[in-house]
Design goal:
The complex is a heterodimer. By secondary structure, chain A is mainly alpha-helical. In chain A, 82% of the residues lie in helices and 0% in strands. The longest helix of chain A is centred in the last third of the chain and has 37 residues. Chains A and B meet through α8, α9 and α12 of A and α3 of B. Bound molecules: adenosine-5'-triphosphate (ATP) and magnesium ion.
Chain lengths: 277, 271
Protein backbone atom coordinates (compact mmCIF):
# COMPACT_ATOMS: atom_id res chain seq x y z
CA UNK A 1 0.00 0.00 0.00
CA UNK A 2 1.13 3.51 -0.74
CA UNK A 3 0.34 4.72 2.76
CA UNK A 4 2.05 1.86 4.54
CA UNK A 5 5.17 2.31 2.42
CA UNK A 6 5.26 6.04 3.01
CA UNK A 7 4.89 5.77 6.78
CA UNK A 8 7.57 3.08 7.06
CA UNK A 9 10.03 5.31 5.20
CA UNK A 10 9.02 8.30 7.33
CA UNK A 11 9.69 6.72 10.74
CA UNK A 12 13.32 7.17 11.80
CA UNK A 13 13.87 3.47 12.35
CA UNK A 14 12.44 2.57 8.96
CA UNK A 15 14.62 5.21 7.36
CA UNK A 16 17.75 3.91 9.05
CA UNK A 17 16.95 0.38 8.03
CA UNK A 18 16.37 1.59 4.50
CA UNK A 19 19.71 3.39 4.19
CA UNK A 20 21.77 0.92 6.22
CA UNK A 21 22.98 -1.23 3.28
CA UNK A 22 24.10 1.90 1.40
CA UNK A 23 26.00 3.22 4.42
CA UNK A 24 27.56 -0.17 5.05
CA UNK A 25 28.84 -0.31 1.48
CA UNK A 26 30.30 3.21 1.74
CA UNK A 27 32.12 2.40 4.98
CA UNK A 28 33.29 -0.92 3.56
CA UNK A 29 34.76 0.66 0.43
CA UNK A 30 36.63 3.31 2.41
CA UNK A 31 38.02 0.67 4.79
CA UNK A 32 39.09 -1.57 1.92
CA UNK A 33 40.77 1.40 0.22
CA UNK A 34 42.74 2.24 3.38
CA UNK A 35 43.79 -1.38 3.91
CA UNK A 36 44.81 -1.91 0.27
CA UNK A 37 46.96 1.23 0.24
CA UNK A 38 48.69 0.06 3.45
CA UNK A 39 48.99 -3.58 2.40
CA UNK A 40 50.48 -2.93 -1.03
CA UNK A 41 52.42 0.12 0.14
CA UNK A 42 50.97 2.27 -2.65
CA UNK A 43 52.78 5.57 -3.17
CA UNK A 44 50.78 8.56 -1.94
CA UNK A 45 51.06 10.29 -5.34
CA UNK A 46 49.31 7.33 -6.95
CA UNK A 47 46.55 6.97 -4.40
CA UNK A 48 46.53 8.62 -0.97
CA UNK A 49 44.93 6.88 1.99
CA UNK A 50 41.40 7.99 2.91
CA UNK A 51 42.77 8.90 6.34
CA UNK A 52 45.33 11.23 4.70
CA UNK A 53 42.60 12.86 2.63
CA UNK A 54 40.47 13.23 5.72
CA UNK A 55 43.24 14.80 7.81
CA UNK A 56 43.98 17.24 4.96
CA UNK A 57 40.27 18.06 4.92
CA UNK A 58 40.25 18.69 8.68
CA UNK A 59 43.32 20.89 8.28
CA UNK A 60 41.45 22.97 5.70
CA UNK A 61 38.44 23.16 8.00
CA UNK A 62 40.62 24.50 10.82
CA UNK A 63 42.19 27.07 8.43
CA UNK A 64 38.76 28.07 7.29
CA UNK A 65 37.47 28.51 10.85
CA UNK A 66 40.56 30.23 12.22
CA UNK A 67 40.40 34.04 12.19
CA UNK A 68 42.97 35.70 9.96
CA UNK A 69 43.65 32.48 7.99
CA UNK A 70 42.23 31.48 4.65
CA UNK A 71 41.47 28.11 3.17
CA UNK A 72 41.92 28.16 -0.59
CA UNK A 73 40.01 24.87 -0.71
CA UNK A 74 36.90 26.36 0.83
CA UNK A 75 37.16 29.53 -1.22
CA UNK A 76 37.48 27.37 -4.32
CA UNK A 77 34.49 25.30 -3.33
CA UNK A 78 32.39 28.42 -2.84
CA UNK A 79 33.47 29.93 -6.16
CA UNK A 80 32.82 26.72 -8.09
CA UNK A 81 29.49 26.24 -6.37
CA UNK A 82 28.33 29.70 -7.46
CA UNK A 83 29.44 29.07 -11.03
CA UNK A 84 27.53 25.80 -11.11
CA UNK A 85 24.50 27.22 -9.36
CA UNK A 86 24.37 30.38 -11.50
CA UNK A 87 24.71 28.34 -14.67
CA UNK A 88 22.04 25.92 -13.43
CA UNK A 89 19.55 28.71 -12.76
CA UNK A 90 20.22 30.50 -16.04
CA UNK A 91 20.24 27.32 -18.13
CA UNK A 92 17.24 25.63 -16.52
CA UNK A 93 15.28 28.88 -16.37
CA UNK A 94 16.06 29.54 -20.00
CA UNK A 95 15.17 25.98 -20.99
CA UNK A 96 11.79 26.14 -19.28
CA UNK A 97 11.09 29.61 -20.68
CA UNK A 98 11.94 28.67 -24.26
CA UNK A 99 9.88 25.47 -23.92
CA UNK A 100 6.88 27.46 -22.68
CA UNK A 101 7.20 29.94 -25.52
CA UNK A 102 7.67 27.39 -28.27
CA UNK A 103 4.96 25.05 -26.98
CA UNK A 104 2.52 27.91 -27.46
CA UNK A 105 2.81 27.17 -31.16
CA UNK A 106 3.03 23.46 -31.87
CA UNK A 107 4.74 24.08 -35.22
CA UNK A 108 7.54 26.06 -33.60
CA UNK A 109 8.25 23.46 -30.92
CA UNK A 110 8.13 20.64 -33.47
CA UNK A 111 10.51 22.56 -35.70
CA UNK A 112 12.99 23.37 -32.93
CA UNK A 113 13.02 19.96 -31.24
CA UNK A 114 15.37 18.23 -33.72
CA UNK A 115 17.87 21.06 -33.26
CA UNK A 116 17.61 20.86 -29.49
CA UNK A 117 18.12 17.09 -29.56
CA UNK A 118 21.10 17.49 -31.89
CA UNK A 119 22.57 20.25 -29.74
CA UNK A 120 22.11 18.02 -26.70
CA UNK A 121 24.52 15.48 -28.21
CA UNK A 122 27.24 18.08 -28.83
CA UNK A 123 30.09 18.04 -26.28
CA UNK A 124 29.40 21.58 -25.07
CA UNK A 125 32.43 21.48 -22.79
CA UNK A 126 34.59 21.82 -25.92
CA UNK A 127 33.44 25.43 -26.09
CA UNK A 128 35.10 26.22 -22.76
CA UNK A 129 38.20 27.86 -24.32
CA UNK A 130 35.94 29.97 -26.52
CA UNK A 131 33.90 31.11 -23.54
CA UNK A 132 37.17 31.98 -21.84
CA UNK A 133 37.93 34.25 -24.79
CA UNK A 134 34.48 35.77 -24.82
CA UNK A 135 34.04 36.50 -21.13
CA UNK A 136 37.63 36.51 -19.85
CA UNK A 137 39.38 33.53 -18.31
CA UNK A 138 38.99 34.70 -14.70
CA UNK A 139 35.40 35.86 -15.11
CA UNK A 140 32.98 33.37 -13.48
CA UNK A 141 30.57 34.18 -16.33
CA UNK A 142 32.73 32.10 -18.68
CA UNK A 143 32.07 28.97 -16.55
CA UNK A 144 28.45 29.87 -15.91
CA UNK A 145 27.92 30.18 -19.65
CA UNK A 146 29.24 26.65 -20.23
CA UNK A 147 27.08 25.24 -17.44
CA UNK A 148 24.04 27.14 -18.66
CA UNK A 149 24.41 25.81 -22.20
CA UNK A 150 24.98 22.26 -20.97
CA UNK A 151 21.80 22.19 -18.84
CA UNK A 152 19.68 24.28 -21.21
CA UNK A 153 19.03 21.58 -23.80
CA UNK A 154 17.97 18.66 -21.62
CA UNK A 155 15.71 21.01 -19.66
CA UNK A 156 14.11 22.44 -22.76
CA UNK A 157 13.63 19.05 -24.40
CA UNK A 158 12.05 17.51 -21.32
CA UNK A 159 9.82 20.48 -20.65
CA UNK A 160 8.50 20.51 -24.21
CA UNK A 161 7.77 16.80 -23.85
CA UNK A 162 5.92 17.31 -20.60
CA UNK A 163 3.89 20.17 -22.02
CA UNK A 164 2.88 18.28 -25.14
CA UNK A 165 2.56 14.64 -24.00
CA UNK A 166 -0.76 15.27 -22.27
CA UNK A 167 -3.35 12.54 -21.92
CA UNK A 168 -5.91 12.98 -24.71
CA UNK A 169 -8.95 12.56 -22.50
CA UNK A 170 -7.60 15.03 -19.93
CA UNK A 171 -7.41 17.52 -22.79
CA UNK A 172 -10.93 16.62 -23.95
CA UNK A 173 -12.17 17.33 -20.46
CA UNK A 174 -10.79 20.89 -20.69
CA UNK A 175 -12.26 21.17 -24.14
CA UNK A 176 -15.69 20.16 -22.83
CA UNK A 177 -15.42 23.06 -20.36
CA UNK A 178 -14.57 25.42 -23.24
CA UNK A 179 -11.46 26.27 -21.22
CA UNK A 180 -9.25 29.15 -22.31
CA UNK A 181 -5.76 28.24 -23.57
CA UNK A 182 -4.36 29.95 -20.49
CA UNK A 183 -6.29 27.60 -18.19
CA UNK A 184 -5.21 24.59 -20.22
CA UNK A 185 -1.61 25.70 -19.83
CA UNK A 186 -1.76 26.50 -16.13
CA UNK A 187 -4.08 23.75 -14.92
CA UNK A 188 -3.11 20.90 -17.22
CA UNK A 189 0.04 21.29 -19.29
CA UNK A 190 2.34 22.74 -16.65
CA UNK A 191 1.37 20.32 -13.84
CA UNK A 192 1.73 17.53 -16.38
CA UNK A 193 5.21 18.81 -17.29
CA UNK A 194 6.48 19.10 -13.70
CA UNK A 195 7.73 15.50 -13.38
CA UNK A 196 9.48 15.82 -16.76
CA UNK A 197 11.04 19.12 -15.70
CA UNK A 198 12.29 17.75 -12.41
CA UNK A 199 13.84 14.72 -13.99
CA UNK A 200 15.74 17.20 -16.19
CA UNK A 201 16.68 19.32 -13.14
CA UNK A 202 18.07 16.26 -11.37
CA UNK A 203 20.29 15.46 -14.33
CA UNK A 204 21.15 19.16 -14.65
CA UNK A 205 22.20 19.42 -11.00
CA UNK A 206 24.89 16.79 -11.55
CA UNK A 207 25.84 18.13 -14.98
CA UNK A 208 26.24 21.68 -13.70
CA UNK A 209 28.98 20.77 -11.24
CA UNK A 210 30.75 18.56 -13.76
CA UNK A 211 30.52 21.38 -16.30
CA UNK A 212 31.90 23.99 -13.93
CA UNK A 213 34.88 21.88 -12.74
CA UNK A 214 35.83 20.67 -16.21
CA UNK A 215 35.48 24.19 -17.62
CA UNK A 216 37.93 25.34 -14.93
CA UNK A 217 40.44 22.75 -16.16
CA UNK A 218 40.77 25.03 -19.20
CA UNK A 219 41.84 27.88 -16.93
CA UNK A 220 40.27 30.14 -14.35
CA UNK A 221 40.97 32.01 -11.12
CA UNK A 222 43.25 30.28 -8.58
CA UNK A 223 40.45 29.78 -6.07
CA UNK A 224 38.23 27.39 -8.05
CA UNK A 225 38.08 23.62 -7.66
CA UNK A 226 39.10 22.78 -11.23
CA UNK A 227 42.19 24.98 -11.09
CA UNK A 228 42.97 23.80 -7.54
CA UNK A 229 42.86 20.15 -8.61
CA UNK A 230 45.08 20.67 -11.69
CA UNK A 231 47.62 22.75 -9.75
CA UNK A 232 47.87 20.46 -6.70
CA UNK A 233 48.06 17.41 -8.94
CA UNK A 234 50.91 18.83 -10.99
CA UNK A 235 52.64 19.79 -7.71
CA UNK A 236 52.26 16.11 -6.61
CA UNK A 237 50.23 17.13 -3.57
CA UNK A 238 47.68 14.42 -4.11
CA UNK A 239 46.07 14.57 -0.70
CA UNK A 240 45.08 18.16 -1.54
CA UNK A 241 43.88 17.26 -5.02
CA UNK A 242 41.81 14.41 -3.64
CA UNK A 243 40.33 16.61 -0.95
CA UNK A 244 39.18 18.99 -3.67
CA UNK A 245 37.67 16.09 -5.62
CA UNK A 246 35.88 15.08 -2.45
CA UNK A 247 34.52 18.61 -2.01
CA UNK A 248 33.29 18.62 -5.59
CA UNK A 249 31.52 15.31 -4.95
CA UNK A 250 29.94 16.57 -1.74
CA UNK A 251 28.65 19.71 -3.47
CA UNK A 252 27.35 17.73 -6.43
CA UNK A 253 25.53 15.20 -4.27
CA UNK A 254 24.06 17.90 -2.00
CA UNK A 255 22.86 19.82 -5.01
CA UNK A 256 21.16 16.71 -6.34
CA UNK A 257 19.54 15.99 -2.98
CA UNK A 258 18.19 19.55 -2.71
CA UNK A 259 16.57 19.20 -6.13
CA UNK A 260 15.14 15.85 -5.09
CA UNK A 261 13.76 17.37 -1.88
CA UNK A 262 12.11 20.27 -3.71
CA UNK A 263 10.63 17.79 -6.19
CA UNK A 264 9.06 15.75 -3.42
CA UNK A 265 7.70 18.80 -1.65
CA UNK A 266 6.26 20.23 -4.84
CA UNK A 267 4.81 17.01 -6.21
CA UNK A 268 3.60 14.83 -3.36
CA UNK A 269 1.37 12.94 -5.76
CA UNK A 270 4.29 11.92 -7.91
CA UNK A 271 6.68 10.93 -5.12
CA UNK A 272 4.02 8.71 -3.58
CA UNK A 273 3.31 7.05 -6.87
CA UNK A 274 6.98 6.27 -7.14
CA UNK A 275 7.23 4.97 -3.58
CA UNK A 276 4.35 2.57 -4.01
CA UNK A 277 5.60 1.42 -7.40
CA UNK B 1 -38.70 20.94 -15.66
CA UNK B 2 -38.33 22.09 -19.23
CA UNK B 3 -41.26 22.01 -21.63
CA UNK B 4 -41.48 18.35 -22.57
CA UNK B 5 -41.68 19.13 -26.27
CA UNK B 6 -38.40 21.03 -26.37
CA UNK B 7 -35.93 19.06 -28.40
CA UNK B 8 -32.60 18.83 -26.59
CA UNK B 9 -30.74 16.76 -29.15
CA UNK B 10 -31.60 16.08 -32.72
CA UNK B 11 -29.46 13.89 -34.95
CA UNK B 12 -30.30 13.54 -38.64
CA UNK B 13 -28.60 11.02 -40.92
CA UNK B 14 -25.40 11.11 -38.91
CA UNK B 15 -22.47 9.14 -40.28
CA UNK B 16 -19.06 8.89 -38.75
CA UNK B 17 -16.22 7.28 -40.65
CA UNK B 18 -12.75 7.13 -39.09
CA UNK B 19 -9.73 7.25 -41.42
CA UNK B 20 -11.89 7.43 -44.58
CA UNK B 21 -10.28 6.07 -47.70
CA UNK B 22 -7.46 4.30 -45.87
CA UNK B 23 -6.96 0.66 -45.01
CA UNK B 24 -8.03 1.41 -41.48
CA UNK B 25 -11.37 2.89 -42.49
CA UNK B 26 -14.01 2.25 -39.81
CA UNK B 27 -17.66 3.09 -40.25
CA UNK B 28 -18.28 3.84 -36.59
CA UNK B 29 -21.80 5.20 -37.08
CA UNK B 30 -24.21 4.88 -40.00
CA UNK B 31 -27.50 6.70 -40.58
CA UNK B 32 -28.12 7.69 -37.00
CA UNK B 33 -31.48 9.40 -36.56
CA UNK B 34 -32.45 10.29 -33.04
CA UNK B 35 -34.48 12.96 -31.31
CA UNK B 36 -34.13 13.43 -27.60
CA UNK B 37 -36.50 15.72 -25.73
CA UNK B 38 -35.21 18.08 -23.10
CA UNK B 39 -35.30 16.35 -19.74
CA UNK B 40 -35.27 12.83 -21.14
CA UNK B 41 -33.17 10.06 -19.69
CA UNK B 42 -31.83 8.05 -22.63
CA UNK B 43 -29.70 4.92 -22.36
CA UNK B 44 -27.45 3.70 -25.15
CA UNK B 45 -26.80 -0.01 -25.08
CA UNK B 46 -25.04 -2.27 -27.51
CA UNK B 47 -22.06 -4.56 -27.91
CA UNK B 48 -18.53 -3.27 -27.63
CA UNK B 49 -17.44 -1.26 -30.64
CA UNK B 50 -20.94 -0.32 -31.85
CA UNK B 51 -20.19 3.39 -31.59
CA UNK B 52 -21.77 4.41 -28.27
CA UNK B 53 -18.77 6.44 -27.15
CA UNK B 54 -18.42 7.89 -30.63
CA UNK B 55 -22.02 9.10 -30.59
CA UNK B 56 -21.48 10.72 -27.21
CA UNK B 57 -18.37 12.46 -28.44
CA UNK B 58 -20.18 13.74 -31.51
CA UNK B 59 -22.90 15.21 -29.33
CA UNK B 60 -20.29 16.68 -26.99
CA UNK B 61 -18.39 18.28 -29.91
CA UNK B 62 -15.26 16.28 -29.21
CA UNK B 63 -15.60 14.79 -32.71
CA UNK B 64 -17.22 16.06 -35.89
CA UNK B 65 -19.66 13.92 -37.89
CA UNK B 66 -18.57 12.91 -41.40
CA UNK B 67 -22.04 13.84 -42.61
CA UNK B 68 -25.48 14.63 -41.26
CA UNK B 69 -26.84 17.30 -39.00
CA UNK B 70 -26.63 17.47 -35.25
CA UNK B 71 -28.31 20.08 -33.05
CA UNK B 72 -28.10 20.40 -29.27
CA UNK B 73 -30.54 22.71 -27.52
CA UNK B 74 -31.27 24.17 -30.95
CA UNK B 75 -27.62 25.11 -31.41
CA UNK B 76 -24.61 23.52 -33.01
CA UNK B 77 -22.77 21.13 -30.67
CA UNK B 78 -19.87 23.56 -30.75
CA UNK B 79 -22.00 26.45 -29.55
CA UNK B 80 -23.47 24.27 -26.81
CA UNK B 81 -19.99 23.34 -25.70
CA UNK B 82 -18.95 26.98 -25.63
CA UNK B 83 -22.09 27.69 -23.59
CA UNK B 84 -20.95 24.99 -21.16
CA UNK B 85 -24.06 22.87 -21.60
CA UNK B 86 -22.21 19.55 -21.25
CA UNK B 87 -21.26 17.61 -18.19
CA UNK B 88 -19.14 14.71 -19.39
CA UNK B 89 -18.27 11.50 -17.59
CA UNK B 90 -15.79 9.52 -19.61
CA UNK B 91 -15.35 5.77 -19.64
CA UNK B 92 -12.15 6.26 -17.60
CA UNK B 93 -12.28 8.61 -14.62
CA UNK B 94 -9.62 10.97 -16.07
CA UNK B 95 -8.91 12.73 -12.80
CA UNK B 96 -5.90 15.04 -12.59
CA UNK B 97 -3.54 13.12 -10.34
CA UNK B 98 -1.90 16.31 -9.01
CA UNK B 99 -5.21 17.55 -7.62
CA UNK B 100 -6.94 16.37 -4.49
CA UNK B 101 -10.44 14.95 -4.83
CA UNK B 102 -12.14 18.24 -3.97
CA UNK B 103 -9.80 20.17 -6.26
CA UNK B 104 -10.69 17.80 -9.08
CA UNK B 105 -14.37 18.50 -8.55
CA UNK B 106 -13.62 22.21 -8.45
CA UNK B 107 -11.69 22.12 -11.74
CA UNK B 108 -14.62 23.07 -14.00
CA UNK B 109 -15.70 25.70 -11.48
CA UNK B 110 -12.23 27.27 -11.55
CA UNK B 111 -12.20 27.27 -15.33
CA UNK B 112 -15.66 28.84 -15.39
CA UNK B 113 -14.72 31.53 -12.90
CA UNK B 114 -16.75 30.62 -9.81
CA UNK B 115 -15.76 32.31 -6.54
CA UNK B 116 -13.64 30.35 -4.06
CA UNK B 117 -16.20 29.66 -1.34
CA UNK B 118 -18.91 28.73 -3.80
CA UNK B 119 -16.48 26.31 -5.43
CA UNK B 120 -15.84 24.66 -2.11
CA UNK B 121 -19.51 24.45 -1.17
CA UNK B 122 -20.52 22.96 -4.47
CA UNK B 123 -17.66 20.48 -4.47
CA UNK B 124 -18.53 19.31 -0.97
CA UNK B 125 -22.23 18.98 -1.83
CA UNK B 126 -21.44 16.94 -4.93
CA UNK B 127 -18.99 14.71 -3.07
CA UNK B 128 -21.55 14.09 -0.33
CA UNK B 129 -24.00 13.09 -2.99
CA UNK B 130 -21.68 10.44 -4.44
CA UNK B 131 -20.95 9.34 -0.86
CA UNK B 132 -17.35 10.52 -0.91
CA UNK B 133 -17.67 13.53 1.38
CA UNK B 134 -15.03 12.13 3.72
CA UNK B 135 -12.49 11.77 0.91
CA UNK B 136 -12.31 15.42 -0.17
CA UNK B 137 -8.64 15.79 0.81
CA UNK B 138 -7.49 12.46 -0.58
CA UNK B 139 -5.64 12.16 -3.85
CA UNK B 140 -6.92 10.09 -6.77
CA UNK B 141 -4.33 7.33 -6.34
CA UNK B 142 -5.68 6.71 -2.85
CA UNK B 143 -9.13 5.81 -4.21
CA UNK B 144 -10.41 2.65 -5.83
CA UNK B 145 -11.44 2.70 -9.48
CA UNK B 146 -15.12 2.92 -8.60
CA UNK B 147 -14.51 5.78 -6.18
CA UNK B 148 -12.52 7.64 -8.81
CA UNK B 149 -15.38 7.27 -11.23
CA UNK B 150 -17.79 8.69 -8.67
CA UNK B 151 -15.49 11.70 -8.25
CA UNK B 152 -15.69 12.23 -11.99
CA UNK B 153 -19.50 12.17 -11.74
CA UNK B 154 -19.39 14.79 -8.97
CA UNK B 155 -17.10 16.85 -11.20
CA UNK B 156 -19.52 16.63 -14.13
CA UNK B 157 -22.45 17.74 -11.98
CA UNK B 158 -20.61 20.52 -10.16
CA UNK B 159 -21.37 23.27 -12.67
CA UNK B 160 -24.98 22.21 -13.24
CA UNK B 161 -24.83 21.57 -17.00
CA UNK B 162 -28.12 21.06 -18.85
CA UNK B 163 -26.94 17.93 -20.68
CA UNK B 164 -25.17 15.05 -18.97
CA UNK B 165 -23.18 12.70 -21.20
CA UNK B 166 -22.24 9.65 -19.18
CA UNK B 167 -20.13 6.88 -20.70
CA UNK B 168 -20.45 3.73 -18.56
CA UNK B 169 -20.14 5.73 -15.35
CA UNK B 170 -20.98 2.83 -13.04
CA UNK B 171 -19.16 0.09 -14.91
CA UNK B 172 -16.51 -0.27 -12.20
CA UNK B 173 -18.91 -0.42 -9.25
CA UNK B 174 -20.13 -3.39 -7.27
CA UNK B 175 -23.80 -4.29 -7.59
CA UNK B 176 -24.94 -2.59 -4.37
CA UNK B 177 -23.06 0.66 -4.82
CA UNK B 178 -24.26 0.69 -8.38
CA UNK B 179 -27.89 0.41 -7.33
CA UNK B 180 -27.47 3.20 -4.78
CA UNK B 181 -25.79 5.38 -7.41
CA UNK B 182 -28.66 4.63 -9.79
CA UNK B 183 -31.14 5.90 -7.23
CA UNK B 184 -29.01 9.00 -6.59
CA UNK B 185 -28.81 9.72 -10.29
CA UNK B 186 -32.58 9.40 -10.66
CA UNK B 187 -33.01 11.79 -7.74
CA UNK B 188 -30.69 14.36 -9.31
CA UNK B 189 -32.45 13.95 -12.61
CA UNK B 190 -35.84 14.40 -10.98
CA UNK B 191 -34.68 17.50 -9.13
CA UNK B 192 -32.85 19.19 -11.98
CA UNK B 193 -34.62 18.03 -15.13
CA UNK B 194 -31.33 17.52 -16.95
CA UNK B 195 -31.17 15.71 -20.24
CA UNK B 196 -29.14 12.58 -19.59
CA UNK B 197 -27.52 10.35 -22.16
CA UNK B 198 -26.22 7.29 -20.45
CA UNK B 199 -24.09 4.52 -21.96
CA UNK B 200 -24.21 1.18 -20.20
CA UNK B 201 -23.58 -2.50 -20.79
CA UNK B 202 -26.08 -3.45 -18.12
CA UNK B 203 -29.55 -4.19 -19.45
CA UNK B 204 -31.15 -3.95 -16.02
CA UNK B 205 -29.50 -0.62 -15.35
CA UNK B 206 -30.69 0.77 -18.69
CA UNK B 207 -34.26 -0.37 -18.03
CA UNK B 208 -34.24 0.84 -14.45
CA UNK B 209 -33.01 4.34 -15.26
CA UNK B 210 -34.18 5.57 -18.60
CA UNK B 211 -37.41 6.48 -20.32
CA UNK B 212 -36.04 5.30 -23.65
CA UNK B 213 -33.43 2.74 -24.51
CA UNK B 214 -31.47 3.00 -27.74
CA UNK B 215 -30.25 -0.43 -28.82
CA UNK B 216 -27.29 -0.35 -31.19
CA UNK B 217 -25.50 -2.93 -33.33
CA UNK B 218 -21.90 -2.91 -34.55
CA UNK B 219 -20.03 -2.75 -37.85
CA UNK B 220 -21.36 -0.44 -39.01
CA UNK B 221 -22.72 1.13 -35.84
CA UNK B 222 -26.46 1.56 -36.24
CA UNK B 223 -29.54 2.03 -34.14
CA UNK B 224 -31.52 -1.20 -34.34
CA UNK B 225 -34.38 -0.21 -32.08
CA UNK B 226 -35.53 2.48 -29.70
CA UNK B 227 -37.48 0.97 -26.81
CA UNK B 228 -39.95 3.13 -24.89
CA UNK B 229 -39.98 2.51 -21.19
CA UNK B 230 -43.21 3.69 -19.59
CA UNK B 231 -42.50 2.34 -16.10
CA UNK B 232 -43.59 5.15 -13.78
CA UNK B 233 -41.17 7.30 -11.80
CA UNK B 234 -40.11 7.52 -9.03
CA UNK B 235 -38.54 4.11 -9.38
CA UNK B 236 -37.09 2.31 -6.40
CA UNK B 237 -35.99 -1.16 -5.32
CA UNK B 238 -39.52 -2.47 -5.84
CA UNK B 239 -39.40 -1.49 -9.49
CA UNK B 240 -37.02 -4.36 -10.11
CA UNK B 241 -39.66 -6.92 -9.17
CA UNK B 242 -42.38 -5.28 -11.29
CA UNK B 243 -43.49 -7.74 -14.04
CA UNK B 244 -43.42 -4.90 -16.58
CA UNK B 245 -39.78 -4.26 -15.67
CA UNK B 246 -38.88 -7.92 -16.01
CA UNK B 247 -40.63 -8.08 -19.35
CA UNK B 248 -38.71 -5.04 -20.62
CA UNK B 249 -35.41 -6.49 -19.51
CA UNK B 250 -36.20 -9.65 -21.47
CA UNK B 251 -37.19 -7.63 -24.51
CA UNK B 252 -33.98 -5.58 -24.52
CA UNK B 253 -31.97 -8.74 -24.00
CA UNK B 254 -33.56 -10.29 -27.12
CA UNK B 255 -32.90 -7.16 -29.14
CA UNK B 256 -29.32 -7.11 -28.00
CA UNK B 257 -28.85 -10.76 -28.88
CA UNK B 258 -30.06 -9.97 -32.39
CA UNK B 259 -27.77 -6.94 -32.55
CA UNK B 260 -24.76 -8.99 -31.55
CA UNK B 261 -25.84 -11.69 -34.00
CA UNK B 262 -25.90 -9.25 -36.89
CA UNK B 263 -22.52 -7.84 -35.89
CA UNK B 264 -21.06 -11.32 -35.60
CA UNK B 265 -22.50 -12.25 -38.97
CA UNK B 266 -20.53 -9.38 -40.48
CA UNK B 267 -17.10 -10.28 -39.20
CA UNK B 268 -17.46 -13.05 -36.69
CA UNK B 269 -16.38 -10.89 -33.78
CA UNK B 270 -18.52 -9.84 -30.87
CA UNK B 271 -18.42 -9.39 -27.14
N1 LIG C 1 -10.27 7.84 -32.81
C1 LIG C 1 -10.61 6.74 -33.51
N2 LIG C 1 -9.94 6.40 -34.61
C2 LIG C 1 -10.26 5.30 -35.32
N3 LIG C 1 -11.26 4.47 -35.00
C3 LIG C 1 -11.97 4.74 -33.91
C4 LIG C 1 -11.68 5.90 -33.10
N4 LIG C 1 -12.55 5.92 -32.06
C5 LIG C 1 -13.34 4.84 -32.22
N5 LIG C 1 -13.01 4.14 -33.33
C6 LIG C 1 -13.68 2.94 -33.83
O1 LIG C 1 -15.05 3.18 -33.88
C7 LIG C 1 -15.80 2.07 -33.44
C8 LIG C 1 -16.73 2.48 -32.33
O2 LIG C 1 -15.96 2.81 -31.19
P1 LIG C 1 -16.63 3.29 -29.83
O3 LIG C 1 -15.53 3.64 -28.90
O4 LIG C 1 -17.62 4.34 -30.14
O5 LIG C 1 -17.36 1.96 -29.35
P2 LIG C 1 -18.22 1.72 -28.03
O6 LIG C 1 -19.58 1.34 -28.46
O7 LIG C 1 -18.10 2.86 -27.11
O8 LIG C 1 -17.49 0.45 -27.41
P3 LIG C 1 -17.26 0.05 -25.87
O9 LIG C 1 -18.56 -0.50 -25.37
O10 LIG C 1 -16.21 -1.01 -25.94
O11 LIG C 1 -16.82 1.28 -25.16
C9 LIG C 1 -14.79 1.00 -33.04
O12 LIG C 1 -14.69 0.07 -34.08
C10 LIG C 1 -13.50 1.76 -32.90
O13 LIG C 1 -12.43 0.96 -33.29
MG1 LIG D 1 -17.21 3.20 -25.28
Amino acid sequence: MAQAGASAAASPRGRLGYYFPTLAIAVGVILAWEILVLAFDIQQFLLPKPSAIFSEFMHQVSLWLAPGERSILFESSGATFWEAFGGFIIGCGGGVLVALITSRWTIVSEATMPFAIAANSVPIIAFAPIMNNWFGITNPASKMAIVAIIVFFPTMINTVRGLTLVDASQLELMRSYAAAPRDILLKLRIPNALPYMFSAFRVASALSLIGAVVAEFFGGPRATLGVYITQEASAFDFAKAWTAIMMASIIGISFYLVVLYVERRLMPWHASLRDSG
Amino acid sequence: MADSRDIAISAQDINKIFNPGSDEEVVALQDINLEIEAGEFISLIGPSGCGKSTLMRLIGDLLQPSSGELLVNGKSPRQSRLDRDYGMVFQAATLYEWRSVTKNVQLPLEVMGYAGDERQQRAQAMLDMVELGAFAKHFPWQLSGGMQQRVSIARALAFDPSVLLMDEPFGALDEFTRERMNLQLLKIWNQTGKTIIFVTHSISEAVFLSNRIVVMSPRPGRITEIVDNTLPYPRDFNTRSDPAYIQLVARVRDLLRDAIGSGAANDGEAE
